[in-house]
From TrEMBL:
GO terms for cellular component: cytoplasm; DNA polymerase III complex. InterPro entries: DNA_clamp_sf, DNA_polIII_beta, DNA_polIII_beta_C, DNA_polIII_beta_cen, DNA_polIII_beta_N. This is Beta sliding clamp. The gene is dnaN. It comes from Apilactobacillus bombintestini. PANTHER family: BETA SLIDING CLAMP, DNA POLYMERASE III SUBUNIT BETA. Belongs to the beta sliding clamp family. Residues 1-126 form the DNA polymerase III beta sliding clamp N-terminal domain.
Length: 378
């Protein structure tokens, strides 16, 4: 096996697949990076058994300056190999495998020799034989991920809640996540019939996928098999296992009516919550209180720490209707939720001090909803 390549193109590929390589895996060969050279190009593969990433550096693309002299494959220790490639002195580098699995890396006047492993021992990637494919623009798919993964659970005691529930039915894609204290749901209408799915994708996988979707990503394609999902982004393939089990019915958690409704600028409300949480974080219960005086059209955010002091701030509203209310909540949940709305106007609807309240964008409110459960303080 022998090839030469432009180092920046190679580093880009290595960085992509390294997201799936873990040093803590129980399968030693998975700490390595698999390289396969052929006439078509160079294929890089990384995996931790749960997530696998494969990217192809195309030899037809002149920017890659890839020349394959001898096809073949090898598995190299990912951490060492990545460090070597990034420190090489020249713009181009050559890699050749001789004497079995001994691998020589040269660039300019620098030369390294490292021991590789037999690529035949590397686990095969899952086969996904499904013609049904969901295709979404990169920015929309990234937004769906970022708006839902914030509500997945970190508790392994209920593994099903560590994922995002994706449902495709009647040309509508639902994505919903909850950790039983908060919920985030996003809905997207698809242009044509793309089949039916009901799967749970690990939140950790989706977070890594989101980092791979750049501003110039045109489309993300998604295919489902029995226990795997495959996302395709250009020449890169992202595989993840699916979570097994039945996701709870979250539709019944969302209140159908409300007693008090307030419209805020999401960014301004986020600022007030952040300031109040400076003190609440010093308190053992980490709670911020929101007080609504309907007759005076006044909303106050307050935080208190017995050891440090207290904070109180009036928040501007666009509109306010309904009854007076005092409600307490975890400010970190609220900050995560508000961060997903950016600078838009939002409607916050309350039913009672102990019932969950909802946040939706003032425009297109049917397609995105956040729900937070309040904290009992008495």
């Amino acid at each position: 096996m022998k090839f030469s390549i432009k180092r920046t193109a190679f580093i880009q590929g290595i960085n992509m697949v390294s997201r799936a390589i873990s040093s803590k895996t129980t399968i030693p060969i998975l700490t390595g990076l698999k390289l396969t050279a052929s006439e078509e190009g160079l294929t890089l593969t990384g995996s931790d058994a749960d997530v696998s990433i494969q990217t192809i550096i195309d030899s037809a693309d002149e920017d890659n300056e890839l020349t394959v002299s001898e096809p073949g494959s090898i598995v190299l220790p990912a951490r060492f190999f990545s460090g070597i490639v990034k420190k090489l002195p020249d713009e181009k580098m050559t890699l050749s495998v001789t004497n079995g699995f001994q691998t020589e890396i040269t660039s300019g006047t620098s030369s390294f020799t490292i021991n590789g492993l037999d690529a035949a021992d590397y686990p095969h990637l899952p086969e996904i034989n499904n013609d049904n494919e969901i295709s979404l623009s990169g920015d929309v798919f990234k937004e769906i991920i970022n708006q839902t993964v914030l509500a997945v659970s970190n508790q392994e005691s209920r593994p099903i809640l560590t994922g995002v529930h994706f449902i495709l039915k009647d040309q509508t894609l639902f994505a919903v996540a909850t950790d039983s204290h908060r919920l985030s749901q996003r809905k997207v209408e698809l242009p044509d019939n793309q089949g039916e799915y009901d799967v749970i994708i690990p939140g950790s996988s989706l977070r890594e996928l989101s980092k791979m979707i750049s501003d110039d990503t045109e489309n993300v394609k998604m295919k489902i098999s029995e226990n795997q999902v495959l996302f395709t982004i250009g020449n890169t393939f992202f595989y993840s296992r699916l979570l097994e089990g039945t996701y709870p019915d979250t539709s019944r958690l969302i209140p159908k009516d409300s007693e008090t409704d307030v419209q805020f600028d999401a960014h301004e409300l986020l600022g007030a919550i952040e300031r109040a949480s400076l003190l609440s974080h010093e308190s053992r219960n980490n709670v911020v209180k929101l007080t609504i005086n309907a007759s005076d059209k006044k909303v106050t955010i307050s935080g208190n720490s017995p050891d440090v002091g207290n904070v109180e701030e009036d928040v501007d509203t666009n509109s306010l209707s309904g009854n007076d209310l005092e409600i307490s909540f975890n400010p970190d949940y609220m900050k995560d939720a508000l961060g997903a709305f950016g600078h838009s106007m939002i409607n916050v609807s309350f039913t009672s001090p102990l019932r969950p309240f909802t946040l939706v964008p003032s425009e297109d409110g049917e397609n995105f909803i956040e729900l937070i459960t309040p904290v009992r303080t008495f």
